[in-house]
Specification:
single chain, 12-stranded mixed sheet, TIM Barrel, alpha/beta, 525 residues, 13% strand, 21 helices
Length: 525
């Protein structure tokens, strides 16, 4: 028997039974950082954005795409228990579509710093702009504990082409004229490498630029490292900080089969450099001023929550179903997620590269930092190999003992005690593939199979000709179709790309069911 032919069974066994003793666990007790998406919806709809957001055609429950009131309240509870030092309300979906949540976060979140990322589209009307900024400042004044609020405008050629620049000028004018002396209420601009959109601000206001610094943080307490940062000085003495980030070319359908080698190498180099310099080789942690480390959380619009780069689609945490205490416990006691906290990004890629270099390549080439973990840990047999190798390393380091593993199945213990080279050969001799993984699903979904075939066509998975033929036969039988090759189901529609996003971001099933049940109860009243 080859355990890699039934990987899901053994992955679940490891996740549920393998525990590192509390006295052996590293605890990262520094101030935490958190990034949250309140919504997936956006009116700008930039074509290069990972979310490719639109505002129609979404299914129930709506909590799959944006926080409900319950989701928001659970988010506040989580932040207020997390020893947070830096909270970023992200764009992707436009957060100002949930303006009430922004104001309540400013009033209620226990954190040292709140950064709100926005396109600024809402600032097109100068009166509305003034009122909204005023309401944010009023919310800040209503807090019981001090914090700093930063409004960060994403300004680049794509946004300007969609929304113009007058909204940016209106926002700058409000801050410059009414809040220039408020140290705890700040405006920042943010742009991308090679983009000259900021020159329009410099020209409009006759600003001067200060010398910039590379790889610096936007604050002095929690090190959120950016590529480059400089200042704009206005004639009246007002100053704005400008951050510059790398352009990430998000593409879930990147062609790994026939892509230009140089282009792929550039994508990978940029991705790895970001991990090395901006994330200290560990996206799940954030460095504090006192050299302590804290957890770095990513909270999705559907309530899913993980530390950055640590999403595991077979073992999700969600604000609708899991308490703060349970989420933290799951992160520390799932040996797969803990190993990323403990050993970092490059440790994980090195192990996975032993048997599935295509998974490593795929996770980098799609150029989506947010869900790189979900991509690299998508195939069950690869997850199992990684988990076994992690256990082997912890045994060598005496972090785990064989006695503590005695409750595992005999076949799993045999693999744990197998040398790396032989373990690799056993993995490679397995007939398991992503095709088999899809065949194991209880419910057949035609669109899911078509999307998988598209990605196989573009070289995202290692599958043999025989495995592809087996998958096509399975698809034809269950979909009542007669396709003969992958090319027969190639698709390039907006709906298709939205489904590819859903493959990496889907809501925890238990949370989705709970929200749907709540919706049905309200409908019945």
């Amino acid at each position: 028997m080859n355990i890699f032919d039934e990987p899901s069974k053994y992955v679940q066994e490891i996740v549920s039974k393998v525990r590192i003793r509390e006295d052996k666990l590293k605890k990262f007790k520094g101030k935490t950082m958190a990034f949250v998406f309140f919504t997936k919806f956006c009116d700008v709809q930039c074509s290069h954005c990972f979310f490719r957001s639109d505002n129609e055609g979404f299914d129930l429950p709506r909590e799959q795409y944006e926080f409900s009131r319950e989701g928001f309240e659970n988010f506040i509870k989580f932040i207020n228990k997390s020893n947070n030092g830096y909270l970023s309300i992200l764009g992707g979906g436009e957060p100002f579509k949930k303006f009430e949540y922004i104001k309540e976060t400013i009033r209620r979140a226990k954190t040292d710093r709140i950064v709100i990322v926005t396109s600024g589209m809402w600032g097109a009307d100068d009166k509305v702009c003034k009122n909204m900024i005023g309401e944010m400042y009023e919310a800040l004044c209503q807090r019981k504990t001090p914090t700093k609020v930063v409004l960060r405008i994403s300004m680049d050629k794509w946004h300007i082409a969609k929304i113009g620049i007058d909204c940016i000028f209106n926002i700058i004018d409000v801050f410059k004229n009414f809040f220039a002396d408020k140290e705890n209420f700040e405006l920042q601009l943010h742009t991308l490498t090679g983009d000259n959109s900021i020159e329009k601000v410099i020209e409009h206001y006759s600003c001067t630029k200060t010398d910039g610094k590379k790889y610096v943080s936007d604050n002095e307490e929690i090190f959120k490292i950016g590529l480059y940062r400089y200042g704009l000085h206005f004639p009246d003495g007002y100053k704005i900080s400008v951050g510059i980030a790398q352009i990430f070319h998000s593409n879930l359908k990147v062609n790994l089969r026939n892509s230009n080698t140089n282009q792929l190498e550039q994508l990978i180099t940029l991705f790895d450099d970001d991990m090395k310099y901006n994330s200290y080789s560990n996206p799940s942690l954030v460095k504090n001023k006192n050299n302590e480390w804290g957890l770095d959380f990513l909270i999705s619009y559907n309530g899913n929550i993980a530390t950055w780069g640590n999403e595991q689609l077979y073992s999700l945490n969600n604000l609708y179903t899991d308490s703060y205490e349970n989420i933290i416990s799951n992160i520390y006691h799932n040996i797969i997620s803990y190993s990323l906290l403990d050993k970092g990004y490059f440790y994980r890629t090195q192990i996975i590269n032993e048997v599935n270099p295509l998974a490593v390549l795929r996770s980098k080439a799609i150029h989506i930092r947010d869900y790189a973990g979900a991509s690299i840990l998508e195939e069950n047999h690869t997850i199992l190999y990684y988990a076994i190798r992690v256990i082997q390393d912890y045994l060598k380091e005496n972090v785990i003992t064989l006695e503590e593993l005695s409750g595992l199945s005999k076949e799993l213990l045999t693999m744990i005690n197998t040398k790396k080279g032989i373990l690799k050969k056993i993995y490679e001799s397995s007939s398991y593939s992503i095709i088999k993984q899809y065949m194991e699903k209880r419910v057949f979904n035609e669109n899911e199979w078509k999307d998988l075939f598209n990605l196989i066509y573009f070289g995202h998975y290692t599958v043999s000709k025989e495995q592809i033929e087996e998958g096509i036969q399975y698809y034809n039988t269950h979909a009542d179709k007669k396709i003969s090759q992958l090319e027969d189901v190639l698709e390039n529609s907006k709906e298709h790309y939205q489904r590819l996003i859903e493959r990496l971001t889907f809501m925890k099933p238990e949370a989705k069911r709970l929200c749907m049940e709540n919706y049905e109860k309200l409908e019945a009243i």
